[in-house]
Structures are given as C-alpha cells and as structure tokens.
Amino acid sequence: MGGVGLGILKPAMTTAKKTTDTSSGKPPIYLLDSMAFIFRAYHAMQRQRPMSTRTGVPTAATYVFVNMINKLRKDFAPEYLAAVYDLSGPVFRDERARDMKATQKWNVKTQQFDTVEYAGYKANRTEMPADLTQQLPFIRRALEAFRIPILSYEGFEADDVIGTLSCKLSALGHHVFVVSSDKDMMQLVNADVSILNPTKDNLVLDPAGVEAALGVAPERVIDVMALRGDAIDNIPGAPGIGDKGSVELVQQFGSVEAALDAAVATPDAIKRKTYRESLQNNRDNILLSKELVTIHTAVPIEFSLDEMRTQPPDAAACRDLFSELEFTTLLKELAPAADTTPLNYNLRPTDAEVAALLTAAREPATSDRVPHSSRASQRDEWEVKGLAIAIFEDAQALAEETAAEPDAEA
Q: What is the arrangement of strands in the sheet containing 193-197, beginning at the earlier edge strand?
C-alpha cells in the first residue's frame, strides 16, 4: 500500500527509549517495513549525492539501509526483529479494485466533477528505477548478513503481513513496534502496537499520539483514508474531500458509513456542497476505497519466534558484502577482521588442564604462518596463538580472605 511519510506527526512526537520489557514481562518485537525504508533510503541519497563502486555499481540505497539497520540495533538492542517484504505479482486488492466504477475528480477551474475511467489498483505507479532494482539483491544480502529473517506472503502486501503479525504477536504478550514511515500503519496502533519511525528521531506513535496527530483515534484511521484516498496506490476515495475534510467528516459523523447515510437522509448536516455531492454520488467507490485501504490482519502466514530472535551479525558475510560494495567505514565499524573461533570456558580447571593450556599456547600457530622477518627459520619469529585467562573469585572467598588479612589497607 501507499508509502506516505509521517512528517505530519511532529506535534505528537515522542522519542523512543530502549525498551526491553513490557507489562507482560516479555520483550518487544520489531517488524521492519522493508520496502518503505528502501525507497526512503534511495530517494534520500538521490537528493544528496549518488554513490557507486569503482566499477559503477550503484550503492547509495544499500548504504543508507544498512546504516538504518545498524542504528536501530544500537538504539534499541531488539531481542526480536524481522524484516517484512513485498513480493512481486498480483495481490488480492487487484481483484477487488476491478469492481471500482468510473471515478470522479474535482475540477478546480470548472468547479465541477469530471468523470474519469478507473485504471486499476496502483496503476499510477512508475516502474522502479533501474539503479534501485540493481541494489535490491545487495540489500537482501545485508539482511541475511545481519541474520534478520525476511518474511512475506504471496498474494498479500507487506502491510498485511505486518498487520497479521502485529495481531498474533501482541496476543502472545509482546509489544510490537512497527518500524515504518508509512502513515497507513496508524490503523494498526493500539495499546500493544506502536509505530516507530527511525527517520524522525525515533518518533513513536501510540494511540494518543495518533489521535493528536491525525485528529481521530487509530480505529477511525481507515475511515479518514477511505475519504481522502491514496494517489500513490490509485485509490480514489471521495473526490473533492481532501485531508482536512476527511478528518472533519469522520469527527462529525464517526465513520464513513455514517457520513454517507447523512448525505442522503439529512443532507443539510453537511454544510459544504462539494462534500455533500461527493458523498451522494460516490457511495460504492468510497466503500470500496475503505476496503482497499484496510490492512488485512488474517494472512495465513507461519512464523517462528526463535527465528526472529536477534543474533550477532555474520562477520564473514558482512566483510564480503562491504568489501564488494567498497563500504570502507562500515567495514571498519561493523565487520572488522576478527577471530571467530568458538570460545570454551572452563571455570574449574585441574592442574593438568592448566598445564596443557599453557603448552598449547606456546606452540606456533598452524595457520597464517608469516615470519616477522627474513629469518623464517627461527621459530621465535613465527606468529603464536593468543591466550586469555580470566581469574574469578566468588563473594565467599573474598570475604574469607579479607577477614584473614591483618592489614586492612593491604
């Protein structure tokens, strides 16, 4: 569905803080509206400066997207995180939109409604820019390198998958943060679901924030959207009723249906002639518009909480990707070359185990045996393996030692 930003929400702005628990005691879950941020990343860098590798591969959107993921992880340290994607191909809204009748558009010059043939759901959308299409595989590789699961479902849009998961996960006792800049998501907000917009200084919208920003409660957002329509998705709504009028009518009548009924039963209740005529002449299209803007919350998608659990990034995959895309800074910050050998802890080693460890540590490394100088024949010149020993004493041992020590300062 449409990717309209949340820039209008400044009056209701609250800055999110690191949240690790909810009233249920379960950690929150973050659902990333991937395509919304991919497009935002692309257009943000297009306005500033293009980026590409020395061989001409465009990288700007990938760079911004990776930084956004990294910032999200730093700011909130989410225990659960998943990225939701749109799939190419038809969705159920395409079929429903075929029932849309010829639409009307308000002509400012003639002060009359013009009849326009309806072209279909999302018919106005232009083809994805070629340089962004070229970056999509790299962005997907970045998510895989961060070990973030990618969720989608054929026949439904990312909004619907997010809406469904929000309902299911909040029912399990988790607070859900929908990480998005799309105002359509406001209809999902409730006591257990919030919107988090990292591009607006970690703006968070709860139910009170939605009402303060839009003028209606979250459950009435679809009524407002149905009246104003969505130019990006080619959802006509009520012609001649814009952002302001849609809110005023829903505030006055409570719902789209009530406003439509009033336009026929008590037309004088709608003072503005344009609004009144629009409601009277476009009932079917307005109701179908409401259906199209409503996020589906019953997608038959399977999910696993274990797979959503945050893991450390795959350092090797990050290094490969960032090296290929020439992300020098990210390579240093996110994927420095490091020994990824698993660590084994022995909290109660025997004397024999300590002796064996010291012997092994003194042996020269068997890999990357690069001499420090030309005297390669001398064993002391070879790289040796590292050794770290941590010595712990529990509280009881410390107390006993302190009590037995005659000199307190010593």
A: 150-151, 80-84, 29-33, 176-179, 193-197, 203-205
